[in-house]
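The authors assume throughout that readers already know how a fold can be written as discrete tokens. A single example would do more here than another paragraph of explanation. An entry of this sort, consisting of the sequence and the corresponding backbone structure tokens, reads as follows:
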Amino acid sequence: MHIVDIAFSMELWSGRNSSAIATYTDKRIITKFEQIPKSYSDQEGLAFCVEPLRKEDVLAIFGKGIDATSANRLLSVLHGRRVAGTLADPDAPGSLNVYEERARQIGLAWLRKNVPVDEIRCAGLQAEKQLAAMQGELNVREFEAREKAKKAQAEEIRKITGTLEVATPKSTVVLRRPGENPKLKYYLERQKVLPDTPPEMSMFQRLWPSGLLVFGVVLACIVFPQVYTPPKRSGRLMPDMPPAAATIFGITLINLAIFVLWRHPPAFRYLNMYFMTTPGYVRPLSLIGNIFSHQAFSHLAWNMAVLYFVGTRLHDEVGRGNFLAIYIACGALGSFTSLTSWVIRGNFVSSSLGASGALAGVIATYLWLHSTEAVKLLGVFPPDSWPNLPSAGFLVVLIAMDLIGLSRWNKSPKNLDHWAHLGGYGAGIGAAELLKLKARKRRAIEQERRQNMRFLDKIREGRL
């Protein structure tokens, strides 16, 4: 599950003491385009001060609703893009929600006041760099075209006589800013379903509607496998496709449809309401919708690939009813774990979406059901000559990776919702234990039935 960091405030920060301001003008802070390191990326940004902002500093700048980690990362990204000349026009229409737009405005205003950067010059240098790269690519193409023309000309000379007129290829690069489409602007304005600032609510008020919904979903998922009857082959939509593949194909189609809708501006309003979870606003149904929602194709492709390789195996083992129940319940519990983590920390500036919580549950269920068996990725790794790693051990490694992702010393991009993953893993382990309990009860009932069988019944079942 991915996280989109966003921020908001009711007023801009108005002042700091002189010693603190000196940390923003330190020579170690990169403020010129030529100083940008080769390893720079827009996702990581650049340091905007010597020491990260403290909690009280963040409160003074942004107000309530954002923690220091998120605020420092937001300002680092904005500062990096100012220096790199890749900062988008904050006044141009975009698909950001109101919290993120306010965060950009507040962060940029504060950075421009405290960390001087010649943004116009940096943007110009960035444009020159891009133009030079484009011109270099065009020069290569021109050279290849000339060589191809020379070869063609030589071939023609061999065949015919007379004069040849050789046309020199010309390419023109036009840089322009596209105009605003009135309909696009209308839909982008309608998508803003959140208030400018989060409503004043207690922790319980923010969580109980979503908690109640998730509780109901989990109960429904426990009951569903008991009443679900798989359709006969003649009644299936795709009778020639294995049931597991058909189920995964159906889930993938739903995810793909939502992915396409994220490119359709008229749908933005409803997607923001029901297919993205934002802690600053209480929308319980989004905890279910967001497990089918992806904005980036790489995010969608990776999740669906994992779903196919692990999900088909679990599906074959537990059946469609149990599999769908595990997928939905783990996704809902993962989303609720993520929501709870943000609310407890008082951070209402991050929205999340993606099937990762549900997938974590599917992975955990499968590994925990085979906890003592050796695990092999794609059936080949690790090779037989290597020490065996039990499935439970592999699950512990996965959980440890998310715990490390939450640690303060972790320097990787904070765009993964580790709490949703951990919630999914926990729910998956619980689902596996529930399946094991059902299996033990079935074995006990069957054993008791066999012990109480009459002589003729034993003969009829071939047990004599």
Summary: The chain has 16 helices and two strands. Residues 189-450 form a domain with the Rhomboid-like fold fold (CATH 1.20.1540.10). Strands lie at 2-5, 350-353.
